[in-house]
Amino acid sequence: MKRYVWASSFLLAAVIGCGRSQPSRPPQATTAAPVETVAVVSKKLKTTQQLPGQLLAYESVDIFPKVTGFVEEVRVDVGSRVKKGELLARLSAPELASQRAQAEAALHAAESQLASAEAKLKADEGTRERLEAASKTPGVVAENDVMVAAQAAAAGRGGVAAAESQVKAARDALRAVSQTESYLKIAAPFSGVVSRRELHPGALVGPASGQSGAQPILQIVDTDRLRLVVPVPEADVGAMALGTQVAFVVPAYLGETFSAPIARISHDVNVQTRTMHVELDVENQNGRLSPGSFATVTWPIERGYPTLFVPTSAVASDQQRTFVIRVAGGAAEWVTVQTGQSLKGEIEVVGTLQAGDQVVKSATDSIRNGQKMNPT
User: In whole numbers, what is the pLDDT of the chain averaged over residues?
Assistant: First the structure.
């Protein structure tokens, strides 16, 4: 009996000791992480972007001769201002003189043949008229003689027509030679400035499509009006309008701003650079700006419809997507977005968002999708 009481007491003490060595742990409470949020804002984008551009001459041409010849005189040089039609250079081509002499001789021969044919026709017509008058008296002239005279007159008229055609062809040939000789005088096709001179008196020149390695004599550029060529990124071409004034600066005039209207839009995106060729017309009557200069263009960007904006820090990305973290119902929700233009610390976003949605101001991928949030 004593042994049974002792065993029971020992077992009870062991149970009590085990309960004291492993006290029960209360369950941990799930707390929402505090996070700063901002509202998604809807507004119309209106900003500017700095783009590179280049000034080009409005018109530029290499002056080639139309005929082969030797440079006899060049009357202008680099920097010379020329007017449209002004004589720039003269060539010499001795073979043209012989061609002109041949053409003149051919014309004189044709005119002589025409004179002979006209004289013969006049005589044949006179004979025919006399025979016809005499044939009215019976027995004076045979009818056959009258017919022969009429046929001779008809042949004479044909000879005159042929001679007239030869005279016309000879005159056209002489005119062609004269036209070719006029090409020996090279005139300015438009008013501008001589930007380059390649050849000097004595050089043999020819048309650009002629002898291999043909060189231009001069290059003329129109500097009174320039083209400002701007490659506009594909994302910024939607709101462009002809006539819009655009500001730009050039390195030669530090601190001075110029402006010009949009004049031509190519409406064709370059598949390699993803830009569109746009040209501005720059008036340069004072000649201050120079073709070939680089320019920094303040390009206007404006949308005619409202878009959504969030702080730049509210956009995060991982290896798969770009997203913002919307807080709704006390939980974080990743919303995939596409970004657009930046504007004063804000960035344009497109996605399944609405104006007024609350998003985490400083987004990071450490905030997991579905995590409990306590917005402040």
Answer: 86
